[in-house]
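Input record, target 12 of the design panel.
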């Protein structure tokens, strides 16, 4: 069964979010394998502050903690990994400098070629998408579900699926068996995020 890869909402209220995140992990029935802090409009100082609070929660549930873009935070905090876009700096140099210290994932949109280039650099997973219309992933390209199978036939490197995935279409993704299925709006835009993760987990279990 694919693992869920939960990506943070674009804004975080530290008075409420840590308890909500812990509750989601508690109710996920161990279906969540990774959490990514993705805060595009926050300073590195703020991301470090937030990470110091959220990282211990992830560790207590044995969930990998990733940070989007701000890889230098790993010099100050023992995170599990980072996620990079194609334009997030010198990826080859980042992999060479930090690859031995933590996991690295990279967005490859709808390109097998980009994924193979990333693999050569030593990344730990590649992500494809968006597979469905997405408000969270606006600067990306549309990907077809077949790319997940194609990649798995050609490579053993884990892949992630992202983009517009929700309760209505997650089983379509899961049938193609990516290592990770990424969720953003499906959880954080729900009236009850805890109930949303429980429903999504049940949908995955039906295919197990």
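The sequence produced for target 12 reads:
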């Amino acid at each position: 069964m694919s693992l869920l890869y939960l990506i943070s909402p674009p804004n975080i209220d530290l008075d409420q979010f840590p308890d909500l995140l812990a509750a989601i992990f508690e109710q996920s029935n161990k279906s969540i394998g990774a959490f990514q802090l993705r805060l595009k409009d926050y300073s590195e100082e703020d991301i470090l502050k937030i990470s110091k609070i959220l990282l211990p929660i992830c560790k207590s549930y044995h969930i990998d903690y990733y940070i989007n873009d701000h890889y230098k935070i790993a010099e100050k905090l023992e995170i599990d990994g980072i996620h990079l876009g194609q334009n997030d700096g010198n990826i080859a140099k980042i992999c060479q400098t930090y690859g031995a210290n933590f996991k690295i994932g990279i967005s490859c949109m709808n390109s097998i070629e980009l994924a193979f280039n990333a693999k050569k650099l030593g990344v730990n997973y590649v992500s494809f998408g968006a597979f469905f219309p997405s408000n969270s992933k606006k600067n990306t390209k549309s990907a077809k579900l077949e790319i997940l199978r194609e990649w798995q036939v050609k490579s053993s490197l884990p892949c992630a699926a992202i983009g517009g995935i929700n309760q209505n279409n997650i089983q379509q993704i899961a049938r193609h068996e990516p290592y990770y299925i990424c969720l953003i709006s499906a959880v954080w835009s729900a009236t009850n995020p805890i109930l949303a993760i429980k429903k999504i987990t049940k949908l995955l279990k039906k295919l197990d």
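The chain is about 40% helix and 15% strand.
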